[in-house]
Amino acid sequence: MSVQIWTFVFVFLTFGLYVGIAVWSRAGSTSDFYVAGGGVPPLANGMATAADWMSAASFISMAGLISFLGRDGTFYLMGWTGGYVLLALLLAPYLRKFGKFTVPDFIGDRYYSRMARLIAVFCAISISFVYVCGQMQGAGIVFSRFLEVDITTGVVIGMAIVFFYAVLGGMKGITYTQVAQYCVLIFAFMVPAIFISILMTGVPIPQIGFGAELTDAFGGGYLLDRLDGMSEELGFAVYTEGQRSTQDVFFITAALMFGTAGLPHVIIRFFTVPNVRDARRSAGFALIFIAILYTTAPAVAAFARTNLINTVNNAEYAAMPEWFSKWETTNLISFNDKNGDGRIQYVGDPEVNELEVNRDIMVLANPEIANLPNWVVALVAAGALAAALSTAAGLLLVISTSVAHDLMKRSFMPSISEKQELLYARVAIFIAVLVAGYVGLNPPAYVAQVVAYAFGLAAASFFPAIVLGIFQKRMNKHGAIAGMLSGFLFTAGYIVYFKSLNPTLDNAQGWLLGISPEGIGTFGTLINLAVAWLIASFTPEPPQDVQAIVEEIRLPGEAIQR
Amino acid sequence: MSDKNALEYWKSNIRIVLSLLFVWFFISFGCGILLVNILDEIRVGGFKLGFWIAQQGAIFVFVILVYVYIYLMDKLDDAYNLNRDKAKSVDSVEEAR
What we know:
The structure holds two protein chains of two kinds. The model of chain A has no long low-confidence stretch (mean pLDDT 82). By secondary structure, chain A is an all-alpha fold. In chain A, helix 3 packs across helix 8 (151-201), helix 8 packs across helix 13 (276-312) and helix 11 (246-262) crosses helix 20 (520-537). Chain A is 72% helix and 1% strand. Chain B has one domain (3-81). In chain B, helix 1 (3-34) packs antiparallel against helix 3 (49-79). At the A-B interface, helix 5, helix 10, helix 11 and helix 13 of A face helix 1, strand 2, helix 3 and helix 4 of B.
């Protein structure tokens, strides 16, 4: 069977599965809709968190980015996993004890202020929205390449599926669909990785193959030594050495870690487990499930890079395999025969180099480059869709709960009944799906990077406000509000300044202290903390009942009854 | 639970969190970023040590840290008799429904 038929089969089967789960787990109450009734077992929540968390960026783009960044790609690997340590130790258990529905709920109650709640709603919606754009574009790439439908049809199909199970099932539907999606995506990521590891090194575990010797067919020697050698020979940066400044790598890693711990769609997953112990446990499961992919990704990156160079460099253009021309038609690979010799020169020097490869396609094209069976190639497409859709659904839920619960019920229309609130939540998801679909069809440039900025914004706004809310009883609404505003505005301003207003300055010389816009969220976090602490120190302390809440959430046990 | 006990529990909790975060910082920002070039002088099989910690080793340590945290906190909760909802923990999808 051809790749296309296999892809249709996998996509059809997996989508059918998601819809089936959605029908089985319909939401009946707002509690079902927002937090799946608070009854999700930790193992299931761990899987759902992992699927929620691992987006199109993790599945499609990350290994590709690393294969071009070499050691500098480390900030994605450590940043996107190290944040779970912060989440598990500093946030998850306490937020579960607090026992509400959303992140703005916590901010609003802890800082006893409608203003704080509204700022949190604004931050949650803008962060989730920036993030959801990337998911839709990822789904679009997969559809257009593997099903050969145009991107519009692809995005519409994706939106329809997400819409169906998110509106019907809310958090309950999304949770159990995400469990299925985790299984699909991890299988789809691991199978080709294992195949390629066996092919290139004879070791079936990619994590070990990463440091093993290549088989004779690939020229022998340690994989990484060979990759370093080839890179140097062709004028690329040496793979295992860093190019970016140490402080920039440091700041980007920290921004991704703090951001991970501050992302509302990840945090709300910990509201769905029965109690504090289960919140800790599900953070552990989530990190294990994520680590399976994240320790495989750098191996895939190195395999793919080696394989790509081996296949294309100095090869005859006319003799390129089928995948090459297929990706050429999507403009994600382009070849320009500058010296007219009919061969592909793939080298570091931009004057001589004739091949441009989009980083996003490395994972998708990898099985084809390695000549794996058609069903494996198709499996990757289904996995990428699972990753994109699961994350999109989680993000849409945050947008919907922020509107229906925080904006309507808790701020402006407290008198609405539960039934009405549920209706508003569903309408909000409907509108969010439409807007996300529109953005997916008309993506702003560099969506993969835009996702990285969502982390900076989450790091600079939510993370400090929540951590201070738990660990600093004296922190009051004045400090928290001033901190969130200054952190968010500084970070957003810095990014907009370098990306839109003054892009010519967007280089290591132009940046503040050599910190790129990707890493500036760390600075925003520090500003947030400093401003919050300063303002809180000369404004009145929070009321007694709020201080009592803080003491309550520090102890595990029954959720607070108020 | 008395206020005094609650305070002691919280202090032990902070101690556990801080010591684990110290390891977290040391392995990721310390070994994986600041000291990476020095550690790269050491080779383990096909890996330079610094590169390996940065791209894989740190992630394994993160997993271990979270599980050490779960273990220590469970012990602490038991010591302060805070496990009253342990029995209500749900272990399978079926029970949760």
